[in-house]
Every structure is written in structure tokens, then in C-alpha cells.
Amino acid sequence: MAEPPSGVQREFPLARLTTIRTGGAGEYFARPRSIAALERLLAWAAQERLEVGVVGSGSNLLVADEGVRGLVLKLDGELSTIELDGIAGDRLLCGGGARLPAVSAAAARAGLSGIEFGVNIPGTVGGAVRMNANAYGGSLAEVLEWVEVVSGAGTERRTAPQLGFEYRHSNLRCGEVVARARFRLTPAPQEQVKATLALLRERRREAQPSGIKTFGSTFKNPDDPRAEGLSAGQLLDAAGCRGLRVGGARFSDKHANFVENEGAASTADVIALMAAGRERVRERFGVALEPEVQTLGAVALPADWRSR
Ligand SMILES: Cc1cc2nc3c(=O)[nH]c(=O)nc-3n(C[C@H](O)[C@H](O)[C@H](O)COP(=O)(O)OP(=O)(O)OC[C@H]3O[C@@H](n4cnc5c(N)ncnc54)[C@H](O)[C@@H]3O)c2cc1C
To answer: Is there a single domain that holds both residue 87 and residue 189?
Structure first.
């Protein structure tokens, strides 16, 4: 095997890089700080035929308890900055590792509107693009101008329409890393944008549990007439899943689509809890919920779960 590029660590514990705090170690782990460093790492991984995984804020991610084979990356340095770009003063250039609430706050300070919805999404720009994250009617596709995607084959720029956005889905493939993104926003009075952020934070505080170890929505809202318009959380609630527990994992009392790690949960506990909740919803409503949470490593999912 060729010598790994500098900075690559072995058997790096990944649980603390996720918000649910479960899972094992990454076989190889690195924090690239520039596009050049990222390209070197991906070229090395391609040469060694290593699978590549990316962790953003780990806010919608389940890591396998047995750990992750291959190379796991977390973007840092230049790949997590936020700056004004272009001569018109309405563009924000962000590293894929920049945190979305920080992007929303930076936009507000610059008197730019359009990405307020990011204030409550505790993920990174790269994770948000991969997941097509949104909230309260905001839409990434409307404000995203382009992304720079790095893979073993090099770096290319893709526009928002080229990313195949659907509900919680983009067409980014495994091993394709969103290194940078540029947003095109609309000038607006600073105080107005800041007031919107405060309002959205308040709405979120009322609706969702805070201060718990969770990865946010567990299942996607179903597109199934048998759900009669109910969200995944409402279906789980009606099927009696609020507070349901497996090992150290339980469905939150405040929001049934949120799994909480009570302290010592494993990823296997979370999957078993998800399976139990999904089964209850299927029995009661005939609806097969599809996981929203993403996995890293060989997480054993029941065979009939559809997840892209
Ligand atoms: C309390 C809470 C509230 C939440 N509210 C919302 C909400 O309102 N709306 C919403 O949409 N989501 C919400 N989420 C879920 C989550 O924050 C989003 O899905 C977010 O976009 C995930 O970003 P991340 O950086 O944490 O990605 P991770 O969870 O680290 O990873 C998710 C996926 O993205 C991939 N990925 C990460 N970074 C990159 C990159 N740079 N390039 C390529 N792929 C990458 C990972 O490999 C993985 O497949 C919430 C989560 C929590 C914990």
C-alpha cells in the first residue's frame, strides 16, 4: 500500500462527530483544509481502492458500530469558511464544511435574504446539499448557484439543476465531496433578516426537543395516500411510538420522529427501535416508512427498507 498523505489518522473514533453519538471508528480519517489536500486524499483512496465517506456535522448520520472501512473525511480550514464573493455583493461563497446556521447568520449580517431557513438546520453546507435539506418552506435549490464537487476523478462545478434535487435527495454519489458552494441571495434590510432568524429559532424551540442526542428526522414524510397527509412523526405518534425504547435509544416524548440516545445507545439499538416503530406504523396504517437518516459503514438495515 502507498504511504497515506500526511495527516491521515488510523482507527479514529467517529461517534463524537455525530449528534446521536453512536458507532465505531473510521479505518482511515483525515481533515482536509483545502481543495488541493482533498484532491490528494481522494486520489490516494482511488489508487488504494478505498471507499470514501464524508461526515459533515453528523446531524443525520448513523455510523456502524463495527466501524467504517476505508477513508472518512471531515472538511476543515478553507473548506469550512464563509465569505462574500463577486462584485454584486449578493453572493456567499462557503466551504462544504461550513455550518448552515453560521451561513444564515453571516447572510443576515451582510443584509442578504434567502437562506434564513438554514438557521435551524444543524448540518454543514455539504451535508445540506447532499440531503437537499430545507425547513419552513425555504429551498436550497432556489438560492444555490453552484457547488464544486471533488472525487477521485478531480474537481468539477455543478449548478443546482444538475444536482437532481428531490425531497431529501440529490444525485451526488458515494465518494463525491461537496468542497464549496456559492449562494445567490437577495439584498434586504439587516434588521429584517435578523428578525426572521429570531422568529424561526423561536418556532423551532416550541416544536422540537432541544439538548438531546439525536439526528433529527428519522423517517421521511411518506408520499402514500394511506397516510392521509399525516407526517412520519404523526404516524409514529398515532401508532404509540412516543417514548418507545430499545436499549439506550427511545423515540422522543416531544417529537415521535426524533430518536434520542439516552446515554449508552448503540447504532444497533437505534436500528432496532426504528424497525419496531416502522412495524407499528405498517400494522396500523399499511404505510412503509422510508428512513431519512443516512448510514456510514456496514450498518445492517432490514432488507425491505428503501433508502437512497
Ligand atoms: C435537531 C435537528 C434538527 C434538524 N432539522 C432539520 C430540518 O429542519 N431540515 C432538514 O432538512 N434537516 C434537518 N436535520 C437533519 C440534518 O441537520 C440535515 O440533514 C443536514 O443537512 C445534514 O448535514 P450534516 O452536515 O450534518 O451531514 P451528515 O449528517 O454528516 O451527513 C449526511 C449525509 O451527507 C453526506 N455529506 C456530508 N457532508 C458532505 C459533503 N461535504 N459532501 C458530500 N456529502 C456529504 C454524508 O456522507 C451523509 O451521507 C436536523 C437534525 C437535527 C439533529
So the answer is: yes
Are 129 and 141 in contact, with CB atoms under 8 Å apart? no
Boundary-marking domain end, from 51, 77, 103: 77
Question: Among 27, 148, 176, 292, which one carries the catalytic annotation?
Answer: 292
pLDDT in tens, 84-111: 998 889 999 999 999 999 999 999 999 9
User: Of these residues, 57, 59, 151, 217, which one is catalytic?
Assistant: 217
pTM as predicted: 0.96
In-domain check, residue 249:
yes
* Residue segments in the chain with a per-residue pLDDT below the cut of 70: 306-308
The whole domain housing 176 covers 78-207
Are residues 46 and 102 part of one domain? Answer: no
Q: Which residues of 67-100 are buried (b: 16+ CB within 10 A; e: fewer)?
A: bbebbbbbbbebbbebeebeeeebbbbbbbbbbb
Domain count, the chain: 3
